[in-house]
Amino acid sequence: MxxxxxxxxxxxxxxxxxxxLKGLTYEYVPVQIARGLQFEAPYRDISPQALVPILxxxxxxxxxxxxIVEYLDETHPEPPLLPASPIERxxxxxxxxxxxxxxxxxxxxxxxxxxxxxxxLSEEQKLAWYRHWVTTGFTALERRLATESGTxxxxxxxxxxxxxxxxxxxxxxxxxFEVDLSAFPTIVRIDAACSALPAFQQAAPARQPDAE
Amino acid sequence: MxxxxxxxxxxxxxxxxxxxLKGLTYEYVPVQIARGLQFEAPYRDISPQALVPILxxxxxxxxxxxxIVEYLDETHPEPPLLPASPIERxxxxxxxxxxxxxxxxxxxxxxxxxxxxxxxLSEEQKLAWYRHWVTTGFTALERRLATESGTxxxxxxxxxxxxxxxxxxxxxxxxxFEVDLSAFPTIVRIDAACSALPAFQQAAPARQPDAE
Lengths: 212, 212
What we know:
2 copies of one chain form a homodimer.
Chain A: E1 2-5, H1 10-21, E2 27-30, H2 43-46, E3 54-57, E4 60-63, H3 65-75, H4 86-102, H5 109-116, H6 123-147, H7 162-176, H8 185-195, H9 198-203
Helix pairs in contact in A: 1-3, 1-7, 4-6, 4-7, 7-8
């Protein structure tokens, strides 16, 4: 397998964690998003959307991080990233989607560029926007994780899985943008539990070959 | 089953389509999002995030539309909303996530309110923002649907499924905001094929009890 990645992309980070949890080896192909190289050949032909990650599994090009993680879980079932029962699976997916649909999309690079470029907003307004959506999303997520009985050492039970894969990159981003996390003790606790594991450590941005 | 819904919410619309495709009956509970009633009791207690939809299945409260659709597909397998093979499942999920993670989150009500409220942008800037993200996302989606061999009468093959469930509400929204769809013939064709089916018709915003 070959992973088209950018060290700082949260979506790529999710897939790196899933690959590491499954113990799968892969070729790391850096795509220099920060320099706009995703818009140029050859990457533009691989990803019409010019987004990372793309997983190349024996010539099949897979996209969208959560769809890739589901694929890895279906094709390499051990250790499982999703629980067995439909209700629990739905809970775990809903936690991941809370992050992937309600926090991350508002804060990715192209959106921030639109705010300061097209809309001419200040750096301060951009940061306030960033923190607003992280805080709104984390408030909901914290409440769920702190009150729902499914939560354990990790987002669901005592083994890391699908929701933790979404959580950890979002916490890393929040820290990079200096979001105050003091109101989110459960999120911080779970992030710490994940970060103690070698799979999460291997997948971290700073450990990637294209890290700056 | 009981569905907490708002007629105009695309996320609720997705779940309504899935329920209709599965032939499941349910109690429709309107939540008046436009009037802010999602922030008040009793809904606030049901949904800490104050978002619709929530599916109540025998006391289990399920959230996040795509997680609910996966749950319905796992608990009521016929007709299937996802194909059988992991590669195809990943394709279908990636199409749905392209819409759910890259278009819809940027254009939902609370984001538009932040633009015109907190940021003080004009109605015109808001509309330009809306159309920009729909057009960016649809350009990528059209290219995929028009070139990938998996596309059939519907997003994947000749039966409606998971990706169509995400597509149709997004097209409805785009039309409501008068986005020019002339560059997206495949999207428009698939939307028309879906709209000819009773399940999609029953789920449409105008057909809901809380439609204005």
